[in-house]
């Protein structure tokens, strides 16, 4: 087995370091539970692992619903990360996108399917627009995009809440957005027959299609090549005739659009999520970073890592019953991000092992 | 008149101090060559563990020992968080933006987890009023300076200023400071004359962590009475002040002053007669500090004063 991994042409260090990151993440999560409340730690870990099936297929179906926005967000982040642009403006882009999506869907009045379609489109456009300023500042003035996107997150949060409160989709008594009328919600494409009573909708199918498109763009087109070239070395790419500024702006805009779309799916769906009229950031925007880190910035792998983190989040919502805060999932996912720093180590370790192995084989020690 | 001077000048000071300390923290990290985007996370950890002490021991301990304990604990918490980033950035040669982001999301989640299990809620209140020095004898009576610096302040202000002066001296007037700055400009050259780049960077991250923790504690103590697992982006404001101030303490001081003034406008617009009657929606004032930061970082001139290798892990085999 070891020999197979070592000698194969494919590079397994990405997968191995992701598995290691998950393991360390769960370990730290467990340790945190032991420290906070030793008596319930085992029950907590059990809930964390089995919570996705709490109510059988119904809960499991809803995991797909919760996975959709964070997968889209993760793929959006991945797309910008490929160009070495660290877009962590997820919360702001998602918030503004979600607001636009809900507002358009309720107000456009084009009936089922078409209304949410335009709503989602509006979400994507607004999400992209919210990424525009950081993108331009980074491309033309090389301003660190972490600072600009974090500022846009705060501005977006304040603005989205303010706009929500002034709009006609605000429910004053509940301090949240109005419920999207049932016919105007995202179509379910018959998936709710499979998972009865769950919140599943067509979002997961859209996410799969987008993942394939993104993979195609990144691996098989000139634009994808340009993005990766800029990501490896911006100045060298510029020197080689790639318009690095244009590539950076486009990649961040696409990233913002995907994140905004994710926001749309989160609030146009069937899980009863509402935009809240108080100043809190949408933490799903940050979960997207963990999704893409775990997936090594690969859009297809984002599907699996997003699903995994959505499963944990769903389990996390039952953690209250055993006496833990759902924040434990955020602890785990941030440890996962931290551990993606280990990928370099794993890579180096495997390379060294491989060289050792080949060296010994040539000397004939293995006979 | 004195009341106005106190409101505005004192208000500026309340935000000025944490930004200055946070800026100095980041300055140390960046001067040694470590990109420290996690000042926010460090500040949150310092703020949390500091006010946790106040909340837990406010009945059993006397006022000044309690403040001392809180400050020490907040600095230790910040130091540990700083080392966490240092370990990834220095030893693991990680992408420093990523490990910073991990810390910025890890710390708030951890604080909420702890606060939920200890107090049952995500946030908790604490009373800081007993730490307030209503008036320093003699000095408080000086016109203008008195109401700003010596009336209604916290002891953390003076402790912070002392630290900033000491650290400025260390960074620019001692051998250690020179060596530390050299590792941020040309680590290979430093190594060749026998300076341990790793040791210097770890030292810088420890100082940055401890100062960041103090900054977070100062910020929370000065501006609010409830901890909600956040310092509201002020760690990032401190970062942008460092590049605005061209990696110099004097520049950082001016930047902190600017942002202090802006946040006073954003928090007191409703009682300022000039601003009260303007037809500007309140949301504008909430956004103001963040929007100005955006504009400032956009207009900051080129980074030729930045440490040369900031953000690059040190690799001995490279030249």
In brief:
Chain A is mainly α and 367 residues long.
List keywords for this structure.
heterodimer, A: mainly alpha, ABC transporter involved in vitamin B12 uptake, BtuC, two-stranded antiparallel ribbon, B: 319 residues, mainly alpha, 13 helices, globular
Task: Describe this entry's structure for a reader.
- The complex is a heterodimer of chains A (367) and B (319).
- Chain A has a domain at 68-318: ABC transporter involved in vitamin B12 uptake, BtuC (Orthogonal Bundle), CATH 1.10.3470.
- Helix content of chain A is 71%, strand content 1%.
- Chain A is built from 16 helices and two strands.
- Chain A has helices spanning 2-7, 13-36, 41-50, 57-82, 90-108, 114-141, 145-166, 191-194, 203-220, 222-232, 234-239, 244-268, 284-294, 299-316, 327-339, 343-363, and strands spanning 170-171, 176-177.
- Chain A has a two-stranded antiparallel sheet.
- In chain A, helix 4 packs across helix 14.
- The longest helix of chain A has 28 residues, at 114-141.
- Chain B is 70% helix and 4% strand.
- Chain B is globular, with a radius of gyration of 20 Å.
- The termini of chain B are far apart.
- In chain B, helix 1 packs across helix 10 (234-244).
